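re: ur question from yesterday

yeah so i grabbed the chain u mentioned. its 98 aa long if i counted rite. heres the sequnce exactly as i have it in my notes:
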Amino acid sequence: MAELFVTVGLRARAGKEEALRQDLIAVARTSQHEEGALRYELYEDSSQPGLFIFIEHWASEAAQSKHHNDGPHIRHFHEHGAANVERTEFFHRLDRLA
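ran it thru and got these structure tokens back, copy pasting raw so excuse formatting
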């Protein structure tokens, strides 16, 4: 199976930056220990506070799909934390070239 690389950028709603930051940290800390997660990191853009960026490296598309579709922490975020997201700035599935 081919490895999968994903980057996602989420923009916080005005005034909800800290709440979203804490929610995303909780998601990242749990996701980092999931089976198939080779890299799962959360960043905040230093020049654009409130823009949070995930960099993900999965052992396979199946592992990422299980995380995204079956993870209870992801479900919890969608039910309780996603309201703090203004918009998805980008979502990229990447193929490594070198």
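noticed a couple things. The chain has a mean pLDDT of 95. also The chain is about 35% helix and 35% strand.
anyway ttyl
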